[in-house]
Amino acid sequence: MVRLALFFTCLLVTVSIPAKEAAPAADDPVLEKRVAGLASELRCLVCQNQTLADSNAPLAVDLRNQIREQLKGGASERDVIDFLVTRYGDFVLYRPPLKPTTLALWGGPFVFLALGLVLLFRRIASRRGAAPELSAAERERAAKLLE
Amino acid sequence: MRVAWVVAIFLALVALLAAGLRLNPREVPSPLIGRPAPPFELPLLGAPDKSFSQKDMLGKVWMLNVWASWCAPCLVEHPVITQLSKAGPVVGLNYKDAREDALPWLKRNGDPFYASVYDGAGRIAIDYGVYGVPETYVIDRRGVIRYKHIGPLTRDIAQQEVEPLLKELSAGG
Question: Do residue A87 and residue B32 have CB atoms under 8 angstroms apart?
Answer without folding.
Answer: yes
